[in-house]
């Protein structure tokens, strides 16, 4: 087990060791393909002993930010994000809030086609679910890769919570779980709407 004397400063993307020897905690993540654990924050590396009752006795590696930092997305967190780009199989979004607290750092999320809804996954059309500029409520699935968190909107309460109509810019009103309507023009646009 590592000691406190071995604490050091690390930067995002820096390899901390093998996942077979440690578990990633706050500010760290594991990549299954390589089996490596990486830092996701700039800060001081520290080691926590595993809980005595835990079947996994690997030490936990954590990164404490070098300055006071805000909340960090973790698997299971509910986030509010702004969709910035919609592609054929996924949408990327900037995470603005984590569990109702605004973030100080920039975090990117990816909503993959298979994570948009829980049913009829093969029929999901990303372009009919999200548009650039939409505000979505999503759940963090995992830390993803070094560039983005994987997000899911596959529950009724998750999805688009606010959208602007493409021509008038007016805030649209949800009329079903798959459509939103502009109050000015009457234009209806498809979305994966969150049940609020």
**How many strands?**
16
Termini, distance in Å?
47 Å
Helix content: under 10%
What amount of the residues lies in strands? 35-45%
Order of helices and strands: EEEEEEEEEEHEEEEEE
Rg computed from alpha carbons, rounded to a whole number of angstroms: 19 Å
Give the low-confidence spans.
1-5
Give a brief rundown of this model:
By secondary structure, this protein is mostly beta strands.
List strands and helices in order, with pairings.
Elements: E1 9-10, E2 15-18, E3 23-24, E4 28-31, E5 36-39, E6 43-48, E7 60-65, E8 78-86, E9 90-98, E10 101-112, H1 126-129, E11 135-142, E12 149-152, E13 159-162, E14 173-174, E15 179-181, E16 188-190
Parallel strand pairs: 3-7, 10-12
Antiparallel strand pairs: 1-6, 2-5, 4-5, 6-7, 8-9, 8-11, 9-10, 11-12, 11-13, 14-15, 15-16
Structure report:
By secondary structure, this protein is mainly beta. The protein is built from one helix and 16 strands. The strands form four sheets. A five-stranded mixed beta barrel has the order 8-9-10-12-11. A four-stranded mixed beta sheet has the order 1-6-7-3, with no helix packed on it. 30% of the residues are buried. The N terminus is likely disordered.
What labels describe this entry?
single chain; 196 residues; mainly beta; 4-stranded mixed sheet; 1 helix; 16 strands; 2% helix; disordered N terminus
């Amino acid at each position: 087990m590592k000691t406190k004397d071995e604490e050091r400063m690390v930067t995002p993307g820096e390899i901390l060791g093998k996942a077979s020897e440690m578990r990633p905690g706050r500010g760290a993540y594991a990549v299954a393909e390589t089996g490596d654990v990486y830092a996701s924050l700039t800060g001081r590396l520290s080691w926590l002993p595993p809980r005595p009752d835990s079947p996994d006795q690997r030490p936990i590696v954590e990164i404490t930010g070098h300055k006071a930092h805000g909340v960090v997305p973790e698997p299971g967190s509910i986030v509010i994000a702004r969709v910035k780009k919609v592609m054929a199989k996924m949408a990327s979004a900037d995470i603005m809030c984590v569990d109702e607290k605004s973030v100080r750092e920039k975090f990117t999320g990816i909503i993959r086609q298979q994570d948009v809804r829980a049913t009829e996954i093969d029929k999901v059309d990303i372009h009919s679910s999200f548009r650039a500029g939409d505000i979505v409520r999503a759940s963090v699935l995992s830390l993803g890769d070094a560039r983005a968190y994987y997000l899911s909107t596959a529950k009724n309460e998750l999805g688009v919570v606010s959208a602007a109509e493409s021509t008038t810019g007016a805030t649209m009103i949800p009329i079903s779980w798959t459509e939103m309507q502009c109050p000015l023009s009457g234009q209806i646009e498809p979305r994966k709407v969150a049940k609020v």
